[in-house]
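Subject: Predicted fold for RNase H type-1 domain-containing protein, 97 residues

User T.R. writes:
Posting the sequence so we have a shared reference for the thread.
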Amino acid sequence: MFCDGSSNQRGVGLSVVLKSPQRDMIVQSIYCDFKATNNEAEYKALIAGMTVASDLKATGVNVYSDSLLIVSQLNGEFAAKGLKMTGYLEIAKRKAK
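User M.O. replies:
I've generated the structure tokens; pasting them so everyone works from the same file.
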């Protein structure tokens, strides 16, 4: 799974690409009409992708993200700060199980 999120004054954009071992792909582009930081958008993209993967009964999913912060928080190398970021991290960890 490849995921990315971005934020600007017009809203939040999320992109998720799921690729099966047989090379089938599901591509989702999601527009969110609310304000969020780029880090929040990255988490939202990750969680959206993990939700789709779970709904498809996928197992052994490799996740690729360009967000060093999100990856480092999930790996336990960085701490999440603030209630929102801690909440996103907990949701992502729960879905990763």
